[in-house]
Design a protein that fits this description.
mainly alpha; 5 helices; about 0% strand
């Protein structure tokens, strides 16, 4: 999945002329698709596992997130353990990122809005 994020980042950076980072995508995915309740998080992980898209191997990644998103992400693994779902948080994270990548794929190339003359000061 990290390779998919990187590929999309490169395409978007080339298309817009803006410097994008993988962290932009991870933060956006968590903002858009990370459920707020434990029950919804478990359901998202289960749906992702049933989809057949979950890999059997991977590597840990670290990305900078906004403070509000970071606090939700930080509490998720312990919440999953409390629910008897140890090692499930990674599937919640992956599902959220995959959903964003799917949306972006469906939307096509990223188009940066043109600046109007009124925007320049």
């Amino acid at each position: 999945m990290a390779e998919d994020i990187t590929a999309r980042m490169v395409l978007d950076s080339e298309a817009t002329g803006k410097r994008m980072t993988q962290a932009h995508y991870v933060d956006a995915a968590f903002r858009r698709h990370l459920p707020s309740t434990l029950d919804e998080q478990v359901k998202l992980a289960e749906a992702y596992l049933r989809s057949g898209r979950a890999g059997t191997t991977g590597k840990q990644s670290t990305y900078r997130l906004g403070p509000d998103v970071a606090s939700r992400v930080k509490s998720l693994p312990m919440g999953m353990k409390k629910a008897g779902r140890s090692r499930t948080a990674v599937h919640v994270y992956s599902a959220a990122v995959q959903r964003l990548l799917d949306e972006l794929e469906a939307d096509g190339p990223l188009i940066w809005p043109e600046e109007s003359p009124d925007d320049e000061s």
